[in-house]
Amino acid sequence: MASAAAAALPTRREALMARLREPADYDLVVVGGGATGLGVALDAAARGFRVALVESHDFAKGTSSRATKLVHGGVRYLAQGNIALVREALHERTTLLRNAPHLAQPLAFVMPSYHWWETPFYGIGLTMYDALAGQAGLGRTQFLGRQETLRLLPNARAQGLSGGVKYWDGQFNDARLALALARTAATRGALLANYCQATGLVYEDGKVAGVRCTDAETGADFQLRSRCVINATGVWVDALRQQDGTANPGDGRRPTRPMVAPSQGVHLVVDREFLAGDTALMVPKTADGRVLFAVPWLGKVILGTTDTPREDLVREPRPFPEEVRFILSEAARYLTRAPGRQDVRSVWVGLRPLVKPQDDDGENTKGLSREHTVLVSRSNLVTVTGGKWTTYRAMAEDVLQKCFEKSLLATRAAGVTANLRLVGAGEGGARPAPIEASPGLHSYGSEQDLVLGMPGATVLLVPGLTEGMVRFAVRHEYARCVEDVLARRSRLLFLDAAAAAAAAPRVGEIVAEETGRDPQTGAFLQLAQEYLQLPG
Known about the structure:
This protein is of the alpha/beta class. The chain has helices at about 5, 15-20, 35-45, 75-80, 85-100, 120-135, 145-150, 175-185, 235-245, 320-335, 390-405, 450, 465-475, 480-490, 490-495, 495-515, 520-530, and strands spanning about 25, 30, 50-55, 70, 105-115, 140-145, 165-170, 190-195, 195-205, 205-215, 220-225, 230, 260-270, 280-285, 290-295, 300-305, 310, 345-355, 375, 380-385, 460, 465. The chain has 17 helices and 22 strands.
């Protein structure tokens, strides 16, 4: 692990873009700065490859900042009989908690039982979950009586409660984990740029040989030459695949077919008074067969999620009225005090890139694959999509293995990231204090002293955010505008949109001082209003 001083590399935009514009031949260019693309960039850089990554917006702007914040093996996948997926995810869960203890920690869940058969039925399944985890388990599954269930979930509806089952999974800060991947890759020599769009592919002899790019801030165009190009743009992978197919129609076979069927997941955030304590509530089967979570996170509670097909790939998807009604009505079935529309502090939506079978019309997302897929086109464009945050590292290894098999890269040994602690994790040893103990500084881990040394470190803007943190975000964490700071360096927009709007003017002033650019405060204030509005 690099030292704290080396980890806090400056992210000066002008210098970074100047380096990217220099003529160079990369081993690997990654398009997409979400969990998957950043994971690939880190793995490749850690193996010694020359790597560049471009992201059209901010890192983790899309799906990768809008997860339910769970590092998990997938209890529902176990019920579906997908043992291999669960086993892999449980292994990766432990790896992530070890390599980023400041961003990911164990979390206890309780399934309350309102029918006599639920405790033994779900308890047996979760005991199997423990068995699959083996030594990677985080805690033993326990069968609970009524009183113990209410002690752990004091806000659970007592009427009809017979008991429950307690089990363990993990929780994490998704956007900041993405940032840690980017910054760790940079310490290994990778060049990464947000707000830099891949506008097309470069070909030589019918094969992909690089990417055409545009700097979104200056409008400057340039090319990145590369032996291998990875399309890791999540729900947007088909756009680059279609472009590749149009540019290289090949032997006249059928045109490139879409491989992603997006599924929308909605999350509502309410105050902790609706779910006191540090234990999450999990309902394995709601009225319509979906899973519902009530998860404590950074001083608030996340309610969700839905699983709804969606055709339009907008950057800021909004919930459908029926999704909001579903979450609130299901929460009312299990909580003594049901949150209402007026209690929602923020509502946000993520689009999952579910992999579509060849004969599937995409109408039922429950039947689509939650596993990742790696494809190589006739022109050697490598596309990866699907999967989930927990398995990002395994996905990266699979992508590189596919590159080796297709002779796009020279084979190098895998496993280099299995014990690679991310920026902020320190050198090992004791786990940081619980997240709830220091919601502002905790996520900086071993870099806390660096943050405290920034100008304005003692000037509090809102609870959990100081002027020093804003300056650190711009100088060392690639932040370029108010949204970058308040949505993804701090998570305030996702926790309390009204508080984020109140902090925005001063944050904008600081960002402008640091960058010399328009901090886009007005655009952020409009966005914050969207996070406060519930449809219907």
